[in-house]
Amino acid sequence: MEQQMSMPRIGDIAPNFKAMTTFGSLDFHNYIDGKWSILFSHPADFTPVCTTEMSGFAQEKDFFDAHGTVLMGLSIDSIHSHIAWVNNVREKTNVLFNFPIIADIDMSVSKLYGMLQPGESETAAVRAVFFMDPSKKIRLIMYYPLNVGRNMDEIKRVLEALQTADANKCAMPLNWKKGDKVIVPPPKTMEELDTRLNSGLEMVDFYLAKRSL
What is the value of pTM for the model shown? Predict the structure, then answer.
């Protein structure tokens, strides 16, 4: 049986790599240093679902810029294919893929990040999304199959959730979105419990309390 390569996990430091991209040769850690970042893969250039997804990232540039987040795409295509595709989409739709796209022709980055999943395809990367914080730690991972496009609203929602949770030392309830109440960490001592019971928090019970930011 073929040995399965381990994949990066939530909490790991994102593995570093150097790769040729549509922005030239880049060192991943240097590119993302001190910033939030999203690394995402698509199966192939000049394909319909991938074109909608990459366009979606490009059209949200102002959002990602406002949240201090840099983007990097990837597929197992040559740099010439990437350049031709970027130009084709720009000509046909007036949308520019304004972030680097890795030409992972030798599949090295795809293998490093577990984007090649043989049960789905041995030659095309699945639709993976990795969120990294400014310390380069992986904070959230999404995987989609080849035939289902990602949800851009969810990508934006979880980025805001991660950043808000870090800034406010809180957690997010089901379906949280910006402006909703957040969950306060449960008490760890009896003193904290008594403080909680006499607080103005919205409480279902002592362990489940919410507050506005």
Answer: 0.91
